[in-house]
Amino acid sequence: MSKALEGIKIIDFTHVQSGPSCTQLLAWLGADVIKIERVGDGDGTRKQLCDIANADSLYFTMLNHNKRAMTLNTKTPEGLDILNRLIGHCDVLVENFAPGALDRMGVTWEHIHALNPRMILASVKGFGPGRYQACKAYENVAQCAGGAASTTGFEYGAPMVTGAQIGDSGSGLHLALGIVSALFQRHATGRGQKVSVSMQDSVLNLCRVKLRDQQRLERTGVLEEYPQFIGGEFNDTVPRAGNASGGGQPGGMLKCKGWETDPNAYIYFLIQAAAWPSICKVIGENSWIDNDDFNVPAARLPKLNMIFKRIEQWTMTKTKYEAMELLNQYDIPCSPVLSMKEIINDESLRASGSIVDVDHPVRGKYTTVGMPVKMSANTVDITASPLQGEHTHHILHELGFNDRAIALLRNKGVI
Ligand code: COA
Fold first, then answer.
1. Average pLDDT, the chain
2. Hey, what's the torsion of the CAs at 220, 225, 227, 232, to 10 degrees?
3. Does 153 show up as a binding residue in the annotation?
4. Which one, of 174, 180, 181, lies nearest residue 196 by Cα?
5. pLDDT tens digits, residue range 179-204?
6. Residue 153's pLDDT is what?
7. What are the structural domain ranges in the chain?
8. So what's the pLDDT on residue 247?
9. For ligand 1, atom 20, which residue shows the shortest CA distance?
10. The dihedral sign for the CA sequence 382, 386, 391, 392
11. How far apart are CA 284 and CA 281, in angstroms?
């Protein structure tokens, strides 16, 4: 079976998470992704958060599957010459260096475009043009700058970052969309273009409901679905909403059987308006179904704390799985809070390829997250991440270097 991006060659000049998460997706779609790393150190994540001595870390392996890897010192004339040859030979160059690093290397957009007018240059930076454009960035920097931290956490607590890597992998996803679109547009124009994504913008895009709420708050002075609506106060910015639902259906995090000892014995429960009669039946409050004090969302809003407490009396009599099963018989939207331990063993996630085991030549078998986008004509076999410099020789051969020339480059520390 052919792959969606078969034939597309990508120079993967990325490191850490944001860039690698993008190029890994493109590799899973069938592109030939050539990861270029510094001689010696390589991608810093190879040796970060190590759990097995002398083996690439899970941090690295889980972001660099299905790629080829070469080492290259692009700050030598010979290294720069090889990079230039690759630019002539490939379709896309993806990078997430600090602002200005690629230019300082002599690889400006003008240079790339002159060498290969069909090439797409795709970059992730912490910030877009403006006062922070020269700043370096990591995940939580972006979560703070993109509006996630100020709107996450509990009512009276400090701003909070989320475990989902919306700044890094979120930027990778946005960049992948830009690259695929630029490849599509190239069919019509014959020319490449520059695709830029800032981590701040990516987080902001994922936080757009909070920008919606900022404007609602400015107009009306209240946000009815926020916990502050019941007995609290609003000021002039969107507050932290705890576990309240971000949408129009009130939601709550409710204890289930075993919560005293299991920190994840919880279920997230939504009071979807259409499901109100079913909710009342399940928890044994049939009198609430037609009662004017309860039967419309506006009547329930001021009593939400009491209603969730009553529902929780019911959920505490069930395990989170029993509750999920019973509630779904009535089409009541909810989810058990799943731990990573539960997710790693989840049969459905394994059957669908969303959780997969991979064999690595040094570290052996480990588990990773598979391709989240399922396509009927694009199956994905997840292969191990490359060892540092594993394909340097092969790739230089493809560029026309013979063994003697390659040995010379190695002696000079270029590769
Ligand atoms: N050969 C020679 N030099 C190389 C090289 C290679 N193959 N690969 C990288 N380098 C050089 C760079 O040119 C740069 O040199 P310079 O500072 O002299 O210009 C140097 O290595 C360091 O690169 P840099 O990107 O600045 O790394 P850093 O460790 O200082 O910063 C980040 C790391 C992540 C903070 C920074 O890259 C960044 O802000 N990136 C953009 C946002 C981003 O993606 N953040 C990470 C999200 S996971």
1. 97
2. 20
3. no
4. 174
5. 999 999 999 999 999 999 999 999 99
6. 97
7. 9-205+345-412, 250-332
8. 80
9. 101
10. positive
11. 5
Residue ID of nearest Cα to ligand 1 atom 30: 98
Give residue 300 CA to ligand 1 midpoint distance, Å: 53
| 64 annotated binding-site participant | no
Q: Give CATH for domain 9-205+345-412.
A: 3.40.50.10540
Atom of ligand 1 nearest to the CA of 14: 44
Q: Assign 178 a pLDDT band (cuts: 50, 70, 90).
A: very high
Q: Check the annotation: does 247 bind a ligand.
A: yes
Rounded percentage of the chain residues whose pLDDT exceeds 90: 95
Q: Which residue in the list 12, 32, 43, 168 is annotated as catalytic? A: 168
Distance from residue 253's CA to the centre of ligand 1 (Å):
41
Expressed in angstroms and rounded, the spacing between residue 372 Cα and the centre of ligand 1 is: 28
Half-sphere exposure of 245 (CA within 13 A, CB side): 20
Q: Is 72 annotated to bind ligand?
A: yes
Reply yes or no on whether 359 is catalytic: no
Residues contacting 388, CB < 8 A, separation 6+: 37, 42, 46, 56, 69, 71
The three-class DSSP label of residue 143 is helix
Residue 93 has pLDDT above 80, yes or no: yes
Architecture per CATH, 250-332 = 2-Layer Sandwich (3.30)
**Whole-angstrom Cα distance, residue 223 to residue 246?**
11
Q: What is the helix (H) or strand (E) element at residue 60, kind and residue range?
A: helix 58-61
Tracing tokens 């019973």 back to the chain, one arrives at: 326
Ligand 1 pocket, CB under 6 A: 16-19, 36, 38, 72-75, 96-98, 101, 104-105, 124-126, 136-138, 168, 199
Question: Whole-angstrom Cα distance, residue 49 to residue 244?
Answer: 34
Q: Of 365, 362, 357, which is closest to residue 53 (Cα–Cα)?
A: 362
- Output the six-digit token pair for 335: 């989810």
Residue 248 marked as a ligand binder: yes
Ligand 1 atom at minimum distance from 75 CA: 2
pLDDT of residue 246: 75
Q: What confidence score (pLDDT) does residue 1 get?
A: 65
Measured by CA distance, the residue closest to atom 26 of ligand 1 is 98
Rounded distance between C-alpha atoms, residue 33 and residue 11, angstroms: 6
The amino acid sitting at 199 is M
Question: What whole-number distance in Å separates Cα of residue 303 and Cα of residue 31?
Answer: 54
Closest atom of ligand 1 relative to the 105 alpha carbon: 13
**Structural contact between residues 259 and 315, judged by C-beta atoms closer than 8 angstroms:** no
